[in-house]
Structures are given as structure tokens and as C-alpha cells.
Amino acid sequence: LAKTTQPISMDSYEGQEVNITCSHNNIATNDYITWYQQFPSQGPRFIIQGYKTKVTNEVASLFIPADRKSSTLSLPRVSLSDTAVYYCLVGCYGNNRLAFGKGNQVVVIP
Amino acid sequence: NAGVTQTPKFRVLKTGQSMTLLCAQDMNHEYMYWYRQDPGMGLRLIHYSVGEGTTAKGEVPDGYNVSRLKKQNFLLGLESAAPSQTSVYFCASSPTGARTNTGELFFGEGSRLTVL
Hints:
By secondary structure, chain A is mostly beta strands.
């Protein structure tokens, strides 16, 4: 299983852009990078997935450098409701064994 | 559309008791997973299934058994509960494991289990 390393926690002010990093030095050729968001007492929720370069959807952007050993989730103009734990996962869905790391607790401050 | 439903949502057991957690999904997904989440540990995969009648071990399978007799249901069993199994358990499903699919995991709301 490809392991991921994320900062434990970070704070951000409301309205700012938040960039959350993830290291995955042993990522394999077939692995995709997926980010999930988890609120207290809820299951994680899919945010975005990518393989290389940049992916953008209505919620976030995902930046992946050429070596793919890291990735950055960017949340534009965060609000208080974006306070959550964010997980970076690396794996190939073909082997069905995606490993969650410990996640990054993001706290949005008014 | 209910998505992924877990029952029960809360349960308290005594050491040595047995119980079964039920996960049901109505999205016709092939793959289903059981995770446990402990404070500061993130989510750890217990067992998973790639289709009806199949199961496989994840990262932390000891002390648990699973069954996937029907495509829509994935059962997690504790034969002899231990305090170390106190945790929040999450079930998830995904439509396929193919590279061409997003493989998005859909999670239930969790089942909080306390073993005294």
C-alpha cells in the first residue's frame, strides 16, 4: 500500500484559499491520488481525484507535479463549513486496497 | 436513494460477546469495504469484497470475519469482542475497481461500538 504523509493540522481564515499538501514518495505507476473530506460523526466524502498535472471541479483543485511524489489540494475561499479532516489517498482501484493516512485537520477561523 | 446504510449505529458490548454489523447499499456497487477509525489513526481497512461471494483481508483483519452472501449486503462479525475493538466502524462501497472509473468510495454514517 502506498503510504501518505500529511500535516496533522492547519488553521485558515474564512475567505482565504487553503492549500493542503500530501507526500507519497512510493507512489506506483498505476496509482491515482484521491482526496476525501470528513466531518465529525460522518463518513468521508469524495472531493477530487487525479493522476497527473491539474484537475479542477466545482469544489476544489488538485495539483500534481511531474514526479507525482506529492500533491496539493486547493480549496478556494474557504468558509466555516469547510472545517473538517482531509484525507489524501494513493492507490490503484484495481487492487481495491486504498490506504487512508491520518488526515489533516483543517480549522477555518472567522 | 439511501446510499450506504449501516446498522446498528450504536452498540455497547461486554468482552467476549459477539455481534454483527450490517452494511447495505442500494447502488448496485460491486466493491464493498469495512474500515475502523480510532482517534489519531485515520481509517484502517479491515476487510473488503470485490463481488458477491468474495471477501479479502485488509490491513487489520484479526478478530473480525465478513460475509458477502448478497451483492447489496456486507456483514462484519465480531466473534468474541475485546476492548481493543472499541471504535467507529465505517462501511463503504464503490462501483468498480477499474482504472478507468473514478472508483469513488461512498461511505455510510458509521457505527460506534464500545466494548467494556
